[in-house]
Amino acid sequence: MIIAAGVLGKEGFNYLKQILLKVLKQYDPPDEVSRIRYNIGLILFIIPLLIALLMPYLVDHVTIILENYILISIADDGLLVLSLFVLDGNFWDKLRGLFIRTAKIQFS
Fold first, then answer.
1. Rounded Cα distance, 32 and 88, in Å
2. What pLDDT score was predicted for residue 68?
3. CA 62/CA 108 separation, integer angstroms
């Protein structure tokens, strides 16, 4: 950024930054998602948690898990991250609220 500001000057750098922010704003997460998308996102969110919970118990009994433990763990983490992008919008605020001690739940 410093090199870009030095080459373009202040006005050029601000113009470039404005264009980039305009392009990135198109991909801004929506505030509300549809009920179906939210339910799919919740399923995608819960599955990796269940897999991570059960894997230590199943690893000794199911040999395919032991053979592919790292691959399953990577896929599990990827599915969790994907679920956060599917849930979008207000879910990020709900998730952030878990880590704020004074956060209050408001039912509407």
1. 8
2. 86
3. 45
